[in-house]
Design goal:
This protein has about 60 residues and is α+β, with helices and mostly antiparallel strands. It has one domain (about 1-35, about 45-60). It has one helix spanning about 45-55; strands at about 5, 10, 25, 25-30. The protein is globular. The relative contact order is 0.17. The structure holds iron/sulfur cluster. Iron/sulfur cluster binds near residues 14, 22, 23, 30 and 43. Iron/sulfur cluster (SF4) binds near residues 34 and 41.
Length: about 60
Amino acid sequence: MSVDKRRNLPEPVCTAHTDCFGNRKSKCSVLWDNDFGGRDCPFYKNREQYRDELQEVGIRWKRES
Ligand code: SF4
């Protein structure tokens, strides 16, 4: 089980959106809890959408994994 060292909590599993910007090896690296009561994650966006939004505000995304 991977652990977010900043929070010392296990990263939640996310197999619904493996193309999400926050998805790292089927774990969510951006949320502490991704239980939305059976609904889809409202924070999902694919990496291209995320990169485009960062570029709109002038931030360059270096992580391409
Ligand atoms: S933000 Fe939502 S969709 Fe993206 S990895 Fe986390 S739980 Fe999954």
